[in-house]
Amino acid sequence: MDLGIIVATSLILVVVVVVVAVVVVVVVVVVVVVVVKVVVLSPNYPRNYPNNARCAWTIRSSPGTQITFSFSNLKVPSDRYCLSDSVSVYNGARINSSALMLRACGLTAVAPVTSTSNVIYVMFRSDSATTGTGFSAQWSTRRDCYYNLRGSSGTIQTPNYPRNYPINKHCTWRITTSARTQVRLSFTSVNIQNTYLCAADYLANENGSTEMGINVEQEH
Ligand SMILES: *[C@@H]1O[C@H](CO)[C@@H](O)[C@H](O)[C@H]1NC(C)=O
Ligand SMILES: *[C@@H]1O[C@H](CO)[C@@H](O)[C@H](O)[C@H]1NC(C)=O
């Protein structure tokens, strides 16, 4: 065969290989992105996870939402206190023993947990002894206490009003009135825990993304 044909054939082969590789990578990336968004899997799942594994996932949803984390499968053999192999779910972005929502192990799936914040931290660990298929879990987000109101007038109130509002609530009222009108908000009663800069409990007014910061002082 003449050299030109050999070079041309090799070039075509290289191009085909590169194209196939790129397509495979794109498909893998798409599948991974789609799966990771809704499902959390222990390493090697559904095959056995390795010994001495440490894996962590930070799951973040938009502000003002909560995250529900539920197992669809749990095969994490451990001792009765889940000290050897375990899955821990923290309310917040880091390991924090006082924000531990769930420590799971064993062979039967446990009840779902829901965070109060918009970020949870999931940590899986195994020791050098037992192993199992691990876990598969899903997460979903929900907006607690969200009101979308329209009209020319109305009343809003905190949850349970006039009884005490619950702890750990993040409520949003979105008030829309007709074009070229303004919204006037007048408080008829305010009883909110008062802390410096309203860091604990506060009311704010957000005009689109502009926080106008009407912080309301406590009145007796
Ligand atoms: C740990 O969790 C507690 C209770 O949720 C919280 O008050 C505290 O700020 C957290 N600490 C850190 C460092 O995140
Ligand atoms: C609120 O947002 C609207 C639309 O972005 C803007 O026209 C208006 O000036 C804003 N009002 C205040 C008080 O910031």
UniProtKB/TrEMBL annotation:
Pfam family, one: CUB
Residue ranges of the TM segments: 6-39
Ranges in a coiled coil: none
Domain CUB: 40-142, 145-220
InterPro entries per record: CUB_dom, Sperma_CUB_dom_sf
Record-linked CDD domains: CUB
Designated name of the protein: Tolloid 1-like protein
Record organism: Elysia marginata
